[in-house]
Design a protein that fits this description.
19% of the residues lie in helices and 19% in strands. It has 134 residues and is an alpha+beta fold. A hairpin with an 8-residue loop joins strand 1 and strand 2. Helix 1 crosses helix 2.
């Protein structure tokens, strides 16, 4: 079975020159101890002055298919965990004094209080945009 058609699985010889093999970590600064994930939700963290936004988030006011009730749908989150979305949804419900839920990666808040929802998103360093609707 050594007809030359077999694929090597032992790693074989080195492919070529590796330009990074001579690099070391000597002279680099130490990593701060607080770089890991935090247990504090984003809505309770202090806003950093001059910090960049975490991305655009659309706030859409909907009424169709909801029995005439107005619902704010917040969507477009990128790079955010489900737990952080839950914390944001809780903060929005508390700020609006209404109910809400998470469905399909979107946050739905009852009522039409766009300003309170936008304020919570801005505190979490998102860029809220009132999209669609009236």
């Amino acid at each position: 079975m050594s007809d030359g058609k077999r694929i090597r699985t032992d790693g074989g010889p080195a492919f070529g020159h590796n330009p990074f093999e001579a690099l070391t970590a000597a002279g680099l600064p130490d990593v701060p101890a607080s770089t890991g994930p935090t247990d504090v939700p984003a809505t309770e963290r202090p806003a950093l002055k001059g910090a960049r936004h975490r991305g655009r988030v659309d706030i859409i006011r909907q009424r169709a298919g909801r029995g005439g009730k107005t619902v704010m749908v917040i969507r477009g989150f990128a790079g955010i965990s489900g737990a952080e979305k839950e914390a944001l949804a809780h903060a929005m419900r508390k700020a609006c004094g209404t109910g809400g839920t998470m469905k399909n990666g979107q946050i739905e808040i009852q009522g039409g209080n766009r300003d309170a929802v936008a304020r919570v998103l801005e505190e979490a360093r998102f860029h809220p945009v009132f999209a669609g609707g009236w």
